[in-house]
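If you are new to this repository, start here. Below is one unmodified record pulled from the training split, so you can see the exact layout before writing a loader.
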Amino acid sequence: MCYITLFSKSSLLIIWLFVPLSTSMLFWATAAYLIWERQDKLQYQTSLVASLFGTILLSMLLLKTTGYCEESFLFIYPFLAGIAIATIASGFRGLKEYWRELVLLFFSGIPEVLFATLADPSPVTAQFATAVLWYSGWPVTQNGIYINLAGTSVQVYSGCSGVVAMSQLLGMSVLFLMLLPLPWKWSQKLIIPIAAVAIGFMVNVARVALMAILVAQKQMESFEYWHEGSGSLVFSVIGTMLLVGVVWLLIKLFTPASPVREEAE
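And here is the target side for that same chain:
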């Protein structure tokens, strides 16, 4: 493995993670970078049917964006647009050439839709936050999605369940796997997305516990700051930094060091 390539891509990825771009822009930029990196190897062979399909699909997506768009559509849009563009460029058979880019665009938003549709982790989040508070010495009880602390009650609704944090870090983990040339087994690579989901969940649990404490202490201005203000972004940065740290440790653990060649005297 070339460590220069690994270092350069790692630096590029870390810069992208902390540049104030939207998540969607980050995934589009990464997909564009991957295509540009192997542009000479792609086969641009399409058919009339494939071109028509891609053009119609892309036109429908663009037309949809001119009016009211549901939040779920905005999450699915990058993946569908990627399929349309790839089909226009290389046809149906050529879609497999863009599997990395399509996987990236899939994880840019669709997991959040799936998480929210299949299950609501709010009760589990409330349970873990209650446990954190209880082990920290707070007289706390839980009733479903409600955390009762010092005569106050905080509701952990779906927006605070951790779905957003888990989905975003899951997408970031896929970015790592696509950008970094890691000669690992699939079982080893699978650790990164699992760790990403776990980090997203636990960071959100800490955030919910903090919200409960602020409400119990009647610090509503601080609550609004950490709940919906700029403070809420701090937890996203913390989660991203933890994920970067985990990936760095895994690289140290799983990637063998290249042998040092001695120069001939």
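Two things worth knowing about this chain: The beta strands are 140-143, 146-149, 152-155. The longest strand covers residues 140-143.
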